[in-house]
Amino acid sequence: MEENQAPENEKDLSTKEVISSLKKRNWSSYIKEFFMLFLAVFCGFLAENYRGNMVEKRQEKQFIQSFIEDLKSDTATIRVALDFRKLKMTQMDSLMLLLRNQTIKGHENELYFFGRSLVRSVWFQNNDRTFAQLKNSGSLRLIRNEQATDSIMAYQKLIERLITNHEDDRTERYNAFPVLSQIFNPFVFDQMVTATGIQRPTDNPPLRSYDPALQQDLAFCIHQLKGSTFIIEDRLAQLNDKAIRLIDLLNKEYDLE
Question: Which superkingdom (predicted)?
Fold first, then answer.
């Protein structure tokens, strides 16, 4: 009977020891344990936050490097568009001079060439690979440099304005089609167009109409297109300058040079 009671006595003693040890602990020990637990959680949070910031900074720099490459591509495309606009302005001036001076007969070769070239165009299409990715993924927030963000958005706004100018230019070119179709022989036009561009006629093929009133209508169309070309040329020059300055800014701010 005594052997059976021994384990129970040991249990009672063990329980009493635990209770006694709990009574001996004061509030400072609880506070210390809480503080240590809080410190461990907080340090873990800081470490995770630091890792997250490092990842985002690396992504930000990668996006900036990619955007700079897009800007370099844009400047090359802008130069092509500017060269085309300058050439087109020269051609429109030449066509306007022929119409103003009424040097029509005997100059049909030039009239056909300049008339067909009048409605051709080269549009500037920016490389929006990086910006579209940032915008569509909601990652614009990664660009934390305020000056860089403002400059990038200003560049995009100028592109939007240029797109509007291109639409105006398209409308004015379309308005010239009915006038051109009445003055020029479409079969001659068809022979002039090749895979490499527009070729001058080999002789002076007659016009479809020599009506002075239609020539006046054509002169007005040229006048409208010259206005659009002036605006687009100016916008392209502004955009080119802004792209170059933006490349310099981003290289400096992100220490990429």
Answer: Bacteria
Gap between the Cα atoms of 164 and 237, Å rounded? 16
Specify whether the CB–CB gap between 246 and 152 falls below 8 A.
Answer: yes
Q: Any idea what DSSP says for residue 207?
A: P
Of 123, 132, 127, the closest CA to residue 167 belongs to 123
- Spell out the residues 6+ positions from residue 247 whose beta carbon is closer than 8 angstroms to its own: 68, 71, 72
Determine the Cα–Cα distance for residues 101 and 83; give it in Å rounded to an integer: 27
Q: At what angle do helices 27-100 and 108-118 cross, to 10 degrees?
A: 160
What is the chain's alpha carbon radius of gyration, rounded to the nearest angstrom?
38
- List helix spans (H) across 193-211: none
Tell me the residue length of the chain. Answer: 257
pLDDT tens string 48-79:
555 556 566 788 888 999 999 999 999 999 99
